[in-house]
Amino acid sequence: MDDRKIQIFIDSLLPLLKAGVAFTIPLTLISFALGLILAILTALARLSNIGVLRQLARFYVWIIRGTPLLLQLFIIFYGLPSVGITLDPFPAAVIGFTLSVGAYGSEIVRAAILSIPNGQWEAADSLGMTRIQALRRIILPQAARVSVPPLANSFISLVKDTSLAGTITYVELFKKSQQITATTYEPLLIYSEAGLIYLLFCTVLSALQNNLERRLARYSAR
């Protein structure tokens, strides 16, 4: 690597890190938090005895899982203005990623709830608990431990998926790398540098995930 490329690498490192920390990470955290709430509500709707709720939840999951995330972002940001709904890039990205996390996460949560033995429900009923009380006090805490690993994987995947937000003009890490590439004409260098930063973020998150899983395993073993 010649001196010019080294200097470009050094000069672009801080702007890329800033874009990652100031834009990619907040977008990921907000979208995942909202998506997780939506996932729990959707999973409960899928498991409810109310037919309308169950069918609406199933339809939502079917639509989101059956269409590309990039297409959904384009519909939200570029399509909705044709019906009078105009959103800035950040809220459009949050809505798109939240809907995606909610749909995929609901299947994880639903499977975790279904993995709890029926005896747990029966024990709660024998203690005089309502279904909601049993769900809140007994079922969901156990389901949470089961769903942590796949949900953590979804969170790490979301960090990388946020690169799609650049297609709707939101200047996150990948979009910033495109802007720098347009001025330096060094696509291999800049995109590789952006990839290293994504790798750094995901490595840290994977380490946190492993630590959380070990803590939950010790808790479950007691």
TrEMBL record:
Protein name, entry field: Cysteine ABC transporter permease
Compartment list: Cell membrane
UniProt entry tagged with the keyword Cell membrane: yes
SUPFAM superfamilies: MetI-like
GO MF, one example: L-cystine transmembrane transporter activity
InterPro entries found in the cross-reference section: AA_ABC_transptr_permease_3TM, ArtM/GltK/GlnP/TcyL/YhdX-like, MetI-like, MetI-like_sf
A matching Pfam family: BPD_transp_1
Annotated Gene Ontology cellular component terms: ATP-binding cassette (ABC) transporter complex
Keyword field contains Isomerase: no
ABC transmembrane type-1 domain boundaries: 21-209
Record-stated family: Belongs to the binding-protein-dependent transport system permease family.
Membrane topology: Multi-pass membrane protein
PANTHER family: L-CYSTINE TRANSPORT SYSTEM PERMEASE PROTEIN TCYL (PTHR30614:SF0), MEMBRANE COMPONENT OF AMINO ACID ABC TRANSPORTER (PTHR30614)
Source organism, top-level taxon: Bacteria
Residue intervals passing through the bilayer: 20-47, 59-80, 188-208
Keywords: Amino-acid transport, Cell membrane, Membrane, Transmembrane, Transmembrane helix, Transport
